[in-house]
Amino acid sequence: MGKDGLQVTMDEFLPLRDVVFNTLRKAILTGELKPGERLMEIHLANRLGVSRTPIREAIRKLELEGLVTMIPRRGAEVAQITERSLKDVLEVRRALDALCAELACERITETEKAELANACTEFEKATKTKDTTVIARADVALHDIIVAATGNRRLVQLVNNLAEQMYRYRFEYIKDESQHERLIEEHRIIYESIMANNSAAAAEAARIHIDNQEKSIIKQIRLENGQRQPV
After folding, report:
1. Residue 109: CB partners within 8 Å, gap ≥ 6?
2. What is the pTM for the complete model shown?
3. φ and ψ at residue 53, rounded to 5 degrees
């Protein structure tokens, strides 16, 4: 077990290098390791109670995923969240979420409708905890129901492939408590549109949901960079 909150969760079925990789990856995606933070092998090895070799291998894999960048004369750093990377990911997610909402209107089962209604309630409860991890988990659970309701395995696969990258941006958005009421309302509109089998309204609500996330996160990025331009 590591110190300072960062810890390895051992898995008897995984090699140590994969356990370390998963630990560091999760820490980056959830913001425990922050954008721009240096990843020093000795320091991380001490925190996680492992040797430097699995740390070095994990950093190399994280660089390939775009979650870590190598800076000349500084070494490895957690990759910054940039407007370009944000827009690239959300542009794809916007189209996929709209399609998922449309197909869910046509194919959602009564059981899934009940699950979606419950997920909306659970998300609202989660916002009251002020715990970003709990809120993000509830948000993912809600959207997963809509994706599963499409019954399209290839679409589910595409969304899941993008989900890990989305998680990082979702965390940035959810950290902004001023957006919680808007999120609850947007979820309600998507839910009601699907219940009414109104595919056009559901798709548009899904697109607006992503657009508002993009605006909010870009605003945060610019504030953190000392910029004052309107979004």
Report:
1. 149
2. 0.78
3. -60, -50
